[in-house]
Design a protein that fits this description.
- It is a single chain.
- This protein is mainly α.
- It has five helices and no strands.
- Helix 3 packs across helix 4 and helix 4 runs antiparallel to helix 5.
Length: 111
C-alpha cells in the first residue's frame, strides 16, 4: 500500500505508530511479526539477495530487526510529544538502517 493510503498525514502516521508500538510491546507474537516484517523490508528495499546469505547473516539481520523493534516498542510507545517521537525515530534510523546496509554491502549480498 502506498504511504498515502495508510496515513493521511504525518500526525496520523505518528498516532498509528504509537498505537502499533504499544500493542507490540504488550504482545510478543505481534512484536515477533514486526521483526520479520522489518527484516523482509530491509531485504526488499536494500535489494539483498537471500540466496547469498548464510546462517550467520540471517542471525545478524534477526538481531538488528529485534533491536529496532525493541527500540520502537520501548521508546516510540511512550513518546507523547512530537519532538520525542521524531528523536526516537531518528535514533532508530541512524542505528539500525545504516548498520543493515553497511553489513549487507560488506558481506556482498546486495543485488
Amino acid at each position: 500500500f502506498p504511504y498515502t493510503t495508510l496515513f493521511r498525514s504525518p500526525e496520523q502516521a505518528k498516532v498509528r505508530m504509537r498505537i502499533i508500538a504499544k500493542i507490540a510491546r504488550a504482545h510478543p507474537r505481534i512484536r515477533k511479526h514486526l521483526e520479520g516484517a522489518l527484516k523482509n523490508l530491509w531485504i526488499t528495499e536494500l535489494c539483498i539477495d537471500p540466496e547469498k546469505m548464510d546462517a550467520v547473516d540471517e542471525s545478524v539481520l534477526d538481531f538488528m530487526a529485534a533491536g529496532a523493534v525493541g527500540f520502537i516498542c520501548e521508546h516510540l510507545a511512550d513518546a507523547d510529544e512530537d519532538a520525542a517521537f521524531d528523536e526516537s525515530f531518528s535514533i532508530i534510523s541512524r542505528t539500525f538502517g545504516k548498520s543493515a546496509l553497511s553489513y549487507a554491502k560488506e558481506r556482498g549480498f546486495l543485488l
